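Title: Prediction job returns without error message
Component: structure pipeline
Severity: low
Priority: P3
Assignee: unassigned

Description:
Job completed but the reporter wants confirmation the result is attached to the right record. Sequence as submitted:
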Amino acid sequence: MSNTAVTTEQEWKPSGNPWLLILPVMLATFMYALDETVANVALPHIAGSYSVSSQESIWVLTSYLMASSIVIPMIDYFCKVLGRRNYFILSVFVFTVASFMCGVSNSIGMIVIARALQGFGGGCLIPLSQAITMESFKGESLNKAMAVFGLVVVVAPILGPVMGGWITDNWAWPWIFFINVPFGLIVIFLAKKYLEDPPYARRQKGTTLDKWGFFWLCIWLVPLQVVFDKGNDKDWFGSTFICWLTAIAVIGGISFFISQILNKKDNAFIRFDVLKDKNFVFGTIMLIMSNAILLASLAILPQMLQYLLGYDAFTSGLSIMPRGVGALLSLLIFGAVGGRIPYKMYAVVGFFCLGLGGWMLGHLNLEISQMNIVIPNFIFGIGLVFSMMPLVTLSCITLRNEQMTNASGFQNLLKTIGGSIGTSLVATFISRFSQMHQYMMVKSLTPTNNIYAERLSAYAGTFTQYVSDSFTGMYMAQTTLYNQMLQQCKLWAYMDSFRIFAVGCFILIPILFILKGENRTTKN
């Protein structure tokens, strides 16, 4: 590349107000991130509408994630073929049409296909938004722009279950998809009016598809997502089905990376020169772990509130809402303080808050008030923005502008896989920890345990008054105490999982000091 070209790429600035330029990409990012979780609480209603099992309805979520994972590495290719602005507009259009198709679906097969199409359309939105934001701002303005980006990425998945529960309860589940249609049209209008391409993101002639790379990408990601989704239900590697899928995914993954390394053309999905950047490598690893913790905690906390504390879907969503309030507060603090504090210090505070929130959630019981859920979630929300937002910036701060689109796609692909791993692992944690604690606690349910004997006698006496049969009363008393033990075992499993999240966040803090923290420069 010539020096003139490098200068043009590095010195490019939007011709208009950069805040207007990123307005459509932020709205699109919010819409996509919201749809990652908005359908979670509606799954029982969707399953009932199509008369399918809850396990079959899970494919409504899985197809979306699989399609998103496949399209992310192809972002650089589509940007070269269509131009980044045109590709962005086309993606939003596909996402909008697919959302309408989801709402009018008349079978489980149709909605799964529509959700996959929705994932193909929306998978590029977060990486493109990240790249466009970092290219359009410099210095103090970059801090504020990344704060807004971080808020959108973090808050949207938190709002998803709340909005999904409210819409499903008050209207009907198809409206969680129909609501995307007017917003999608608004984003398309704003993108046509304000979005512009820098010289290095415009349409390029002669671009070809890496066919072998695409083939191995599908062989890698499709089985891998099925393994993550079904692994816990199938007892992981105790299932021949999971073993075969894992083997196929491993072969596909290795072959994909080999194909990208051997591809000397410009059409490779992933250019591994970004792995020479220490900030990008360690920052991406930390983002993978952070995303795994975020999605895993969002997956199990509503379950705990509904199954153990008796909350309905909407109330459990409201209990998680303080995360959004904490994120908004941290955004305001970041906007006021700006770059006067190094990014690494923000991230240290962020991971400490994440760890503290997780540790507080790891010390709950079944007699808690709602405030015991609100306060840790508020602290968790502060930690999410203070950790994720500067970490995204730090991981890309030393990359060149022309590396941004490829690096963002690669990073978000790995983050998506990390989120799937976190969600799968936490489901296994709950299952295995419950069994472990049950094995430990069942030894206490013996007549030689005075406390157990006293409670059994008290319960039996109470039940006998209603059934007039001492044998039946004793059986009901034993069943009640056993069910209470199972409930405590399940609670203990949730607490162990939250504590593991907390320890993971504390472990990430020392790794931060490996990253360079200087302001972004024009690196050649």
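Comment from assignee: result matches the submitted record. DSSP finds 22 helices and no strands in the chain.
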